[in-house]
Every structure is written in C-alpha cells, then in structure tokens.
Amino acid sequence: MLAEAQRGGARTRYNCATVHIAASMYRFIAVFLVCLLVLFALELWQPVQDGAIMPFTSGIAHVSVWIMQMFDHGVVARGNDILDANTGGGIEIVAGCNGVEAVLILVSAILAFPAPWKNKLIGIALGFLAIQTLNLVRIISLYYLQRWSMAWFDWFHLYLWQALIILDALVFWLIWLRWLPRTPRPAAV
C-alpha cells in the first residue's frame, strides 16, 4: 500500500515498510531515552548509591588491586581507594569512574531494541563483563599514570579513557546487534 504526501509542490510516495521503519526508529529513541532517565535516576537515588553503587565501586578497587598484586606487591585497597602501601599516595574511584554509567547506556540501548528477552539478557550480561574488563584496565593504567605523571594522568583520565569506555559500550551494542537472530522482513506491498 502506498501513501502520498504533498511537500513543496512535489508528491512523495511512502510505502508501509518505510512508515514502519520510521515508527520503529522513533519507538527505539523514545524507549532508549526513558530507560536512560529511569536508570540514571535510580543510580543517583541515595539508597541505591549506599546499597549497590558504593559497594560495587569498592569491589572494583579490590579486584583491581588483586590483579595488580600479581606484579606489584606494594599496592593496597581501602574502600574505593587504590594506594601505594609505602607512600600512601594513589587514586580514588568515584562516581563516573566505576563503569556504571557506560553499562546503563548499554542496558538502555539493549532494552530499547526489539529483540527476544533471552538475547537481551545475554547481551546485558556479556556487555557488563566487556565494559568492566576494560574499566579494570583503565583503573590500573590510571593508577600507574598518576604515579608517573599527573599531566598524563589528567589527559588519559579526562579525555582518552572516558571516550574509550563509552565507545566500548557502543561497539559492544553494534556487535550484539549483528549477533541477534535474523527475522524475515515483511514484503513491501
């Protein structure tokens, strides 16, 4: 079925498939934005911060130190801090540095995309692992950069790693889209 629209004196033809694709895109954007708002609001809610985010962030510090102690025994974790045992200097993992925001963006994109729930749950789990694995590399590298040069630490912390973590979420989402089972497209009439 074709629909016609009048624009600036010229007629444009739309078929039902075009209209369906546009409606699907608008639905994706709307669901994505609603999920983002809800998930970020939940993340900022103090009971969630106290009960989930702060313990998770502390866990990230301890896992980072566990990895680092394989080659550096002079590093310790205290709460969200990763410290040099000798000097007491180090870094603190704060909100925005724990990878949670990138995970929330990925979860919102996965939930907004029309796919079977099994695929969504697998995508969320594997995406969480992918983002947090890269985030561990980020935290460990920033700890050593901070010890070496604050100028380089600031540049890597504020510019390079912020972009790479979000890019990780985007790339994982694109790979997840390619992994989804293909559904046959409806024939255009």
What would the average pLDDT be, to the nearest integer?
A: 86
Give the distance, in angstroms, between the N- and C-terminal Cα atoms. Answer: 5 Å
Q: Which residue ranges are poorly predicted, with pLDDT under 50 across at least 5 consecutive positions?
A: none
* Largest sheet data: 3 strands, antiparallel
Please state the CA-atom Rg, rounded to the nearest Å: 22 Å
Name the beta content range.
5-15%
Number of helical segments with 4 or more residues:
5
Helix content: 55-70%
DSSP, total strands: 5
Overall shape:
elongated
Structural category is alpha+beta
Q: Any idea how many domains?
A: 1
Report the order of strands and helices. Answer: EEHHEEEHHH
Arrangement of strands in the largest sheet: 3-4-5
Provide a concise account of the structure shown:
With 189 residues, the chain is an alpha+beta fold.
Keywords:
single chain, two-stranded antiparallel ribbon, 67% helix, alpha+beta, 189 residues, 5 strands, three-stranded antiparallel beta sheet, 5 helices
Question: Can you give a write-up of this model?
Answer:
The protein is α+β, with helices and mostly antiparallel strands and 189 residues long. The chain has one domain. 67% of the residues lie in helices and 12% in strands. The strands form two sheets. A three-stranded antiparallel sheet has the order 3-4-5, covered by helices on one side. It has a two-stranded antiparallel sheet with strand order 1-2. It is elongated, with a radius of gyration of 22 Å. The mean pLDDT is 86.
